[in-house]
Amino acid sequence: MIRQIMKGLPIAAVALGISTGAALAGKANDTLTWVTDRESPVVDPYFNRTRELVIIGNTAWDGLLFRDLKSGDFVPNLAKSYKWVDNVTLDFELREGVKFHDGSSFGPEDVIYTVNFTTNKDNGVVTLKNTSWMKSVEKTGPMSIRIHLVKPFPAALAYLAQAVPILADGHYDKAPMTKDGKKDFGSVPPNGTGPYKITDIVPGEKIVMVRNDDYFDGSPKGKASIKNLVYRTIKEMNTQMAELLTGGVDWIWDVPKDQAEKLQASGQVDVVNAKTMRISYLAFDVDGSSNVKAFKDKRVREAFAYAINRESIVKNLVGEAAEVINTPCHPDQVACVQDVTGRSYDPEKAKALLKEAGAEGLEFDIYAYRQREFTEAVISDLAKVGVKAKLNFMQYRKLRGLAQNGVTPVHHMTWGSYSIPDASACAGVFFSGGKDDPANDPKVNELINKAGNVTDLAERKKLYKEAFQIISDNVYWLPMFTYAKNYAYNKDLSIETTSDEIPRFYTAKWK
Amino acid sequence: MVKYILKRLGVAFLVALTVSMITFSLIYVSGDPAVALAGEAASNEEIEHIRKSYGYDRPIPVQYMDWLGRALQGDLGRSHYLKEDISHVILTRLPNTLILAGCAIAFALTLSIPLGVAAAIRPNSLIDRFALTLAVVGQALPSFWFALIMMFFLGIQLRWLPISRVETWQGFIMPAIALGYYVTPGVMRLTRAGMLEVLQSDYIRTAKAKGLRPLTVLFKHALRNAIIPVVSLAAVQFGFMLGGSIVIESIFAINGLGFLAWETIQRGDLPMMQAIVLVLSLFYILITFLADMLNAFLDPRIRVT
Q: Is residue B181 part of a domain?
């Protein structure tokens, strides 16, 4: 009887006009639909700093340079060639025949406009640090420019490749005025030179992009294969997976490990675990500004380094693409040295150190905001050596302030370096002195600041290594592991995962 | 009656004011809005820049009074994150929420009133037991879980309904059921209890004795009286659905006010959050006010007290 009813239901559904409708995603429609959980209403890489906009920025715009992920080299993109004149001057020959999506031609004026606009604080650009290292830019020929840096900045090429998309000259002149008399720069229709052009924006729902068939020859990005690219926002991971399984979307990420395993087992979609540029770390209240003074004692911090089984967390929770790290940067970042003397899992040694420091049975609050299960694993390891940590899990915006104000005895946080492949984008943030620096060790600050201003790679590595060894010896920080992400996508789709959390959809193809 | 209306309007205004003050404070308690707007990888310099640009560096009472002053003049301001006029954003997203809540309450009433009536006519019968079971399950079942179960069967297994698109009317079916089902038990039990009471009253016995047809007695005389508290409850539940659609809208990716609220809280977009709470609370107040008026109109004793 039940079977008969079930058989009859689809007919009833058709009779009622109920149907799922044609899926808009997939090979048949030559439309790649990718989904994340966050809305990106402002489609301008200088007025929105979400990860989604970093991805869209790389898809619809181009920089002067491009980072070849396989070799790690910075190769010309909108530039034809480049050279360092000295450590604060960069010369570029620009590529000819490049057109913006509105049909206008690319030239030196566009680069000059982009730099001048984005380095002007009054314009309210939200990604100020991506361009503030540039002092000025000048035209040196019909298709050549020279960039002057504020001071030596070894990560300049990385920023130019990843975080400085070039806008058309006068792009923001069309910005409408708001009621309060300010210009609304973020609402100017997008106009880049990238392999896809943005054709429709529905805030909270989708951003539609269409292949740029006039994309210039010789770009290291290559011409896109798939005609339509649609970005959708779906908050709930279960809904994202359901849509993926039914062909409503083609690509999702951040799938929890257990769900990824189930998706893989279903055989209906491809699942890949790939590394990202994000790292996880524990920071201690080294100066004793919180209500727990135990972490002023180096032996207590050292005991934590021995007590936490980072290898086990990586293996059992994070994913096979993740790895344990010993220094405050991602191993894929330029100048990120990892070969410092660290500590491996040894709970007995941890117990002995705690006893020596008189901190047996220590109780404190640990603060975290991301992947609760990772912090719970840390708490579990600490419990095994007699330390009781109580988890305070909260939003990032709350925790950042608490951490900077020294309220947290220990916080477990992460850092994605804005996908900039340079050690300065991580170590430079946390150990150059200031609110984010847990120790403000003058020697470490001096070394890190120097390493951030030297262009010779060998010298930088030497400086970082010396600084990182001091950090490790004193356990100011406990670098934990690199993050890995689970990606799941349509079986018809061929796309490479990347280590910088910037999927290159323009390289995707249908099988 | 006029005095009563003015009194209720005064209370409604005070409620709206209190809600807006609490919301404003809670957003600050939950974290620094400048950090949320700047994003995770923002430098301290960028955060400070945003704090000054958006006036978050001013004392909280000053910020609140500034917002309140403009809101009272009908200017809800501009979203710091969406970079759009808030009234425009709300007007764009409100229809989806209203449609969803409307469909959900329609589903709830269509299911619960006939079941409640049937259960009252035949107490302790199979249909009464079925109604009771439905009520217990409905109250015990979290709406997000029910939504996911429906999604699994109707979306993935049977592929009858779209999982997250509301571009067609079919897209509203699962969200409306998930949202409406939660309300069903209350309405059904109230209908049943009201009908049971009314059916035993003297005037119904008189109507039957006069030889009126059973259906006329049931619908024209009994249900008409028993439904009065149900109408009040439905009005309140409709208000609840407008605000309570946050979870359902997030699950089904419906671009409505609930989804916007969720996103806004995460971003720390203070003026947007204030406006959403104000609009939702005004809706709720309006509906409750209308329900109070209806009750007062139907029952003169309320006007006196």
A: yes
pLDDT single digits (tens) A42-51: 889 998 878 8
Among A124, A242, A416, select the one facing B53 at the smallest CB separation: A124
CA dist B200 to B26, B148, B220, B223, Å? 50, 42, 15, 12
d(CA A134, CA A128): 11
End-to-end CA distance of chain A: 43
Q: Are B38 and A125 in contact (CB under 8 A)?
A: no
Q: What does the DSSP assignment read for B203-239?
A: HHHHHHHTT--HHHIIIIIIIHHHHHHHHHHHHHHHH
- Enter the pTM of the model: 0.83
Tell whether A186 is within 8 A of chain B (Cβ).
yes
What type of residue sits at position A355?
Answer: K
| B129: containing domain | 86-269
Asked if A397's CB is within 8 angstroms of B81's CB, the reply is no
The 10s digit of each residue's pLDDT in B5-57 is 788 788 878 888 888 888 777 777 767 778 877 777 677 777 888 788 778 88
CA A25 to chain B, closest CA, distance in angstroms equals 12
**Secondary structure class of A334 (helix, strand, coil):** strand
**Torsion angle defined by CA atoms of residues B217, B222, B225 and B231, in that order, rounded to the nearest 10 degrees:** -110
Residues 6 or more apart in contact with residue B193 via CB below 8 angstroms: B120
Question: Closest by alpha carbon to A164, among A74, A54, A247?
Answer: A54
Contact criterion met (CB < 8 Å) for B35 and A178: no
Select from A180, A401, A418 the Cβ nearest to the Cβ of B31. A401
Residue with the two structure tokens 């109507």: B207
What is the C-alpha to C-alpha distance for residues B50 and B33, in angstroms, rounded to an integer? 9
| Residue B59: inside a domain | no
Q: What is residue A177's DSSP assignment?
A: B
Enter the DSSP assignment of B55.
T
Closest C-alpha to A55, from A508, A446, A510: A508
> What is the total count of domains within chain B?
1
The CATH number assigned to the domain holding B263 equals 1.10.3720.10
Pick the closest to residue A468 from A319, A317, A324, A328 (CA basis): A328
Whether the predicted interface score ipTM is above 0.85: no
CA dihedral A394, B277, B48, A296 (to 10 degrees): -20
The CA distance from A276 to B10, in Å, is 56
Q: Do B38 and A178 touch (CB under 8 A)?
A: no
Asked if A289 and A410 count as a contact pair (C-beta separation under 8 A), the reply is: no
| Domains of chain A, earliest start first | 278-484 (3.10.105.10)
